[in-house]
Structure formats: structure tokens, C-alpha cells
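Teaching assistant here, posting this on the class forum so everyone can see the example we discussed in section. The complex has two components, and the goal was to see what a joint structure prediction looks like when all of them are supplied at once.
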Amino acid sequence: MQQPVPERLQVSPFLVLYLIMSMQIGIGVLGYQRIIAKDAGYDAWISVLAAGLSIHIIIWMIYKICGTVEGDIVAANAYVFGKKIGNVISSVFIFYLLIFALAVLRTFIEVIQVWMFPEISTFWYSLVFLLLSVYIVFGGFRTVTGIAFFCIVLPSYLLLTFGFALKYAEYRNLLPIFDHSLKEFATSAYNMSLTYIGFEIPLFFYPFIKDAPKSQKWAHLGVFLTTIIYTVLAIITFTYFSEAQLAKSIWATLEMWKIVSMPFVERFEYIGIANWNLIILPNICIALWGGSMILKRAYKLRQKKGVILLALICLVAVSFFDTRAKINLLNDWTAKIGFAVTYVYIPILFIATLIAKKVKNKNEN
Amino acid sequence: MRIRSFFWVLAAGITLSGCVEKEIIDDVNIEMGVGYDFVEDDKIEGTVMIPIFNPDKKIGNFTYSATAASSRDLIQEVQRKSAQPLVTGSLEIALFGEGIAKKGIREFTDAFERDASIGARVYFAVADESAKSILSGTYGNRGNAVHLSQLIKHNMETRNLPITNMHLYLFDLYQEGKDPYLPILKKVEPEIIDIVGIALFKDDKLKSELPPDKMFFFKLLTDKFSEGAYKLDVGKEKVVIKDLDSKHKIKLTKRDPYNITVEIKIKGLIREYTGHIVTPEIIKKIEKEFEEQVNKEASAMIKDFQEQGIDPVGFGQFIKSKTRGFDFKRWEDEYKNLTVNVKTDMIITEVGIVE
């Protein structure tokens, strides 16, 4: 059990919905359609749905873990593995959050470079963006939550713009349903990792939620909404592109904006991508906040110093990824690590917590 | 502390926003139309059309042409001739000369596909004779590119031209079991451009052309909802029918060999009639005649497609969507033996304001 967080620093349970959604929706959604259609073809939307449903089990586990140890990931690791080993394992999560923030930031800058301004400097853009993120994290968890809330609500209108693609929808593309093997469906669901990860964050901020157990239903609802958004978007994409055409589209979501026509704007992508800044912002903020929190809890490093340290590492590392191939590799690895953390480590931790609890109860008796 | 860091962010934002290359609308040449033609020695001539905004509010046109061995070199050549950088962001129309279209236009469409600044609503069209001659004329008073794109647009929305644009062309090109098609433009008079038919493609190569009087039936088969107008002979009289709303439904009636029924439902009204009076009996007769005409023309057209091995309607894709584990390799032969029945149901709802 860790020291309780004072109430003035805590947030209401329902805000978990926004925190989870804003962390999940980031850069994966810009181009996941091609990656999942590689295996399951145009049946892949079923994989999206199935993968989304499986997340609810993990969410349930996370709340069980945090409820048992009454604390965050650092507390859980210490509870199960003891303080020293626990802290070492927790440090892995700093690395995970760091690579997550890095992948999000670099991929988004790549999008800007490809779609809007080819000359924009990766370094300067990252600097400004990270300065803003650090500034937000300095405001504390409540500020980060506020940003998460606004960055879901404000850009939510973007969903409507995909309606323009419906005019060109060829629903026959989706037929016949279930024309792929189970293995292909599974691979396709696995390839959703990068797009879905982010739902594990209650592990980091659990003590910061007022009446934390009550927030579980909001976490489930958040994941559910994300799943619906991803599934619907996948279906719209599959009806809009023919299969071989989609296989060539790196950013299918953005490419659908090419068909948007409004009297006041020639190219909607410019508005859309500029708005996407807001969607990216909570990704980076929550990752930096989480990373610095672990640094503080495990190594007693002041959070302000921790944030600046992590942001600096991000800033230096971001310049190393300068080509599409390298950025792709970064994304692949982020997806792999994300999958390992959420679908391998969390179940293990869950079982270990149950065992540890049994053993401790016995000892007490 | 907070205020100070806020100012840092603000200062950085203001100073850094100047770091990106600017494109001021008065200082660039906006490429609105582009065309490609074959010239002798297997060389390609590219034409880029830009609007010129005159002080008296008239919009003029200017074209740059260059000859090169490949489409890649063309851009270089044209840029060298242009005093201001050419930007592609508001491209309206791309024309391909017939010679180029016969050899395949993939090489050219790739550049459009790859360019993030080009929208998916750009119109593609095949130029009868030469793309350059079409682009270098003067039509209407809103500039050539707007004139040409509006010409195509209104014919697609309310007349007999099937809906096509860059997105639909690429969709069909990459869709297995479906082939793309584009409108054909021709300069009939120095100031007039006409749509003279539909170019049917096999992959990215022009295979055959459909004359304008068949376009009405073609559109019934390809578009989800279509509008158009058609002139019909009923006995001695002539009647012009405006198709307000029509739908088609494809049904797979038999396999091995495949048998398909296309059900077309047309709702229309009478625009012109040369006889004296339109009675209910005459309406019945017109409906029947019209149904027969559509059945006959559409069936003949499909037969023709089968002989040429092209599939602009997308029967292959349709059967694929109804079959598990569909094999496109066998489809090539199966398509030749496909039987298509066309069934039309026509209702005339109105006859105008006089009987």
C-alpha cells in the first residue's frame, strides 16, 4: 500500500474515460487499416472488434491488481517482487512510456512533413511540442486530465468528416464475411496493438482517482467507445478503398480527407492534421507524466526534474529517426513492446498479485 | 514560473512559425490543368495550364509545354520555364492523349496518387486527338480548368456521363474484377469542348471507346443512382425521356456457369413528345418500348465487353463478393461464358404540364 494522494490532487472517476480514450487514440489510427488488412483482408474489421473486446479483460485485471495493492504499478511490483526487484521492473515502464511518446511525436512530425510542410525541422518542432507538454505536466495530474478531456472533446467533430467518404462507399467490398482463416484473424488482431495501446494507463494514475474502484466502469466505457470508433472507421475505409488500393495507402485515414470538399477550404487535410496536434498532445503529456511519476516513486527523483529529463531524452532521440524505414521500425517496436506489456506482463502480474495476496494472508494468519 | 514558461512557449511559437517555406498565392503558379500527349520518337509532351488573374477580373489561361522522354523529366522541364514555382494543390483536371492512354497511364497517375497536395476529386479524362489543343484554347469566362471541370461535373450529376474522378479511377484500377473508365473530351470548335464518349480501360490501358448515344445505358449499369435523358422512337413518334432516378440491382441466379440478372428500375418523365396527346395507353406503350430498348442495348453492350475481355460493370467483383475462396485466375475464362440477363422496369411518373 502506498501513501494516499491528497484529495485536492485527485480527479473524478468519470474523467478516466477521457484519459483512456485520449491515450489510445493517437497516431496508430492514421494508418492502421492497411496493416490489419494485410492478413485478414477486408474481414479485418472483425479483428478490430475482437481485439477491442479482449481489452476489457485486461482492464478488469488492471483494476483487480491496483485494487489489491491499493496503489499504482510501482506499488504492485513492490508488493509482488519486493522493493528492489519491483523497482527494476517498474523502470522498464519508464522506457516503455518514453518510446511510446517518442513514436507518437516522431510519427506525427512525419505526417506533417509528408502532408504539409516537407521542410519543417524535426528538432524545432519537437522542442516546441515538448516544451508545451512539460509545461502541462508541471501543472500536475489535474491539468493533464483537463488536457485529455479537451483533446477528446474538441477534435471529436473530425469523426463527422469521414462521412464524406460514405458517398463513395462500395459495401460489396466487405462481402463475403468470414472468408479468412482463424490464424489470419488473430494476426490481424495482433497488428492492432499499436492502435489500441494506451489503455493500460490506470496502472500509473490509479491513486490519483477519487473513489478509484468506481472508475472501472468508465474505463470500460472508454475502451468500448474507442473500439466502436476504430471498427466504424475500418468499415468506412474498407468500403472506400479497393483492397489493392488500400495496400498502398500508408495513411488511409488521412487519404479519406482528400475527397472532402467544402466551399471554404480546398484541402481539408490541412485543417485535419493541424487539429491532430490536439489528439497527440495528451499522448505525450500522459506518457511524460507517467514516466516521471515512476521515477519519483521508485528513485525519489523530483517529478519536475523527471519530466525535464524524459523530455530531453525524447528530444535527443527524435532526431535519430530520419527516414520512413526507421520510423516504421520505431512504430513496430512500440507495438511489440506495447503488446508485451499489456497482453503478457499484465496477466502475469495479475496472477502473481493473486498468489502474493494468498501467501501474505496466510502469513498474517 | 508558469507565466514565464508560457511566454517561452509563445515566443518559440511566434519565431518558429517563420521557419517553414511559405507559398503566397500571388507568388506561385497554380497548376489547374495538366495534359500528356505522345509526339514522334516515343517522346511525351506535357502541358501545364495555369490561370492568369487579370486586373479587370477576367481569368486568362496560360500553358507551358515541354517534351521529354518520361513523365519524371517533364516536371523538371516545365519548372525551368516557369518564372514562379508551380504548385499542384488545386489541380482540377488531368487529360491523357489517346496515344498515351493506349500505352497505359499508370506512369502518370502514380504521380497524382503520390502527391499529398492533390485532392481525390480531380477529374481524369482522355483527350480525343490531343490534350494540348484542348488545354490551350479559351472556353467560358472562368478559366479553362474551371470550365472543363464544370462541364464534366454537370454532365455526371444530371446527364448521361457516369461518375468518374481520380478516386474512382484508382478504385477501379486496383479492384480485382473491375476495370476503369473515363470520359473522352474533344475540341469540336475553337471555343467548344464536347464529351464524345467513354473510354474503356483494361487495367491502365485504353481498350475501346463507347459512343455518346450508348452512354445512357452504360450509366444505368455502372452508377448506383443515375440520372440522364434519352430519345426514343415509338412507332412514328419520337419521345424524349428524362430519367429522374434509377437504380440497378445485380443478382446471381446460377453458378457453373455463372448466370447473372441485372434488374434496372427507372423512374422518368416525358420531356418532349412529337405526337398530339399523351394518353395512358401511350404511356404504357412508351414504357414498354423503353424497357425493351434498355434490355436490348444493355445486353448488347455487356456481350461486347465480354468479347473484349473488359469488365467496367464489375461482374467479377460482384461474383467474388458472393463466393468464398473466389479464384480470379479462373475468372478470365469464366467471364467469357457468363450469361447476363437484363430486366428493366420503367415507370413514367409525369408527362409535364400539358397532356
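For the discussion questions: The mean pLDDT of chain A is 91. The radius of gyration of chain A is 21 Å. Think about how each of these relates to the inputs above.
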